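Page 47, continued from p. 46.
Same chain as before, 404 aa.
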Amino acid sequence: MSIRKARSKETLKSYKQKLAQNFSPKPGFDKKIIWIHAASIGESYSGLSVAKIILKHNNDICILFTTATLSSSKILDDHANERIIHQFLPLDVKIFVKRFIDHWSPQLSIFMESEIWPNYFLELDRRRIPLYVLNARLSDQSFKRWFKLRILADKIFSIPKLISCQDNDTYQRYRLLYQSNIILSENIKYANTPLKTNTKEYQYLKKIFSKKFVYIAASVHENETEIFFNLHRRLLEKYPNTVCIFAPRHPETCSKMISLLGDQPHSWSYLPNHEVNTNNNFFIVNEVGILGTYFELSEVAIIGGSYDNIGGHNPIEAIQKNCIVLHGKNIQNFNEVYDTLDKLKCSFLANNTDSLIQKVEDFILQPNETQDILQNINTTIKKKKITVETEIVNILKNELGEIR
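Result:
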């Protein structure tokens, strides 16, 4: 912990709260507390969706929302709500666990996705505080570890009243661990609040790009860089009004792309940028947490991590911004999401440079068909959002009724 603090991965507040000190103050008003825990950025967005649905359906509840990282806590700051209290979750140490639950006394606890904290689960069970795992995800690697510890796994995983699985792979893995408290549900990420758009920057760039076809290569990894470099180079030969927004997953990917682009003057620039050269046709996003603006500017989003053996990244954020999604074949992390979206004609497999060029060219040359796809995406997102809210309300109906 002290090393993380020295590396600016902890603040004094997060450091102390993870040691079960300096808890956030409890609400001064008489409301019951539901506790939601989400560790990562993605889990926090899903947890916020659950929190908003609960608060929408019950006025007598306050949400305690715990996270594990500074980046995920920032999401709570950006979505401030007087009925949501944030604090960092203490480490999974018995004395810290007891101190935390003594302080907050939640009526109900919800852990998001892959968050399994044994001492918390056991203490919640001992105190008979209902526990739910929502949007559950169990990777193949985690499954293999738990399968070797089947006695412990059965003890821990049988504690939640329900494990609501986000995909069939997770559902089947829990079945192989002999769990019966499981259901298969819609992925909660469909109901997440869309990424924010910087209105001022959007309007500025939209004017510049008004007569151009814009696509984004998002969450690209280093080994995928040459694919996207060659894609854009070849597209420009036929369609000089094509613009690529390149959003790397890691800084080293950014450096590699710059080396490929070379020293051609005015061929590329960074975003955000409020003095864009109108001759530029390639833009590199060099800040995190701002993709919403660039998804909204783009007609097509090519999702990285699927052209190298990474397992792919979630396409839902792009879909929510009305982007047509293209992806490679390495999508094992989100197999079911891509399978569903492919069948609904919201996303498409394009596994190499040639197939990517063909797909992008189709969208450039057939604008009417592109608009039909975008309308289909909009309809799909609305339906799935309603499904998610209905499922969460039904899952928690008995608990919320008792709290009310």
